[in-house]
Amino acid sequence: MKGKKGLGAALAGFTGIALTLAISFVLVIVLILLLSKVPGTTILYFFAGAFMNRYYLGNMLNSAVPLVFTGLAIAVAFKSSVFNLGGEGQVYAGGLAATAVCLALPAANGFLGGAAAVAGALAVSAVLSGLSGWFRMRWDADEMISSFLLSAAIILVVNWVITGPLDDPANNLLATLPIGPQYALSKLFPPSKLNISAFFSLAAAALVWLFMNRTHAGYEMRMCGLNREFARYGGINVRTYLVLPMVLSGALNGLAGAFSVMGTHGMAIKGFSGGMGWNGIAVALIARNNPLAVVPAALLFAWLEAGAKAAMLHGDVTFEIAAIAQSCIFYLVTAQALYGLARKRSAP
Question: Is the pTM of this model over 0.85?
Answer without folding.
Answer: yes
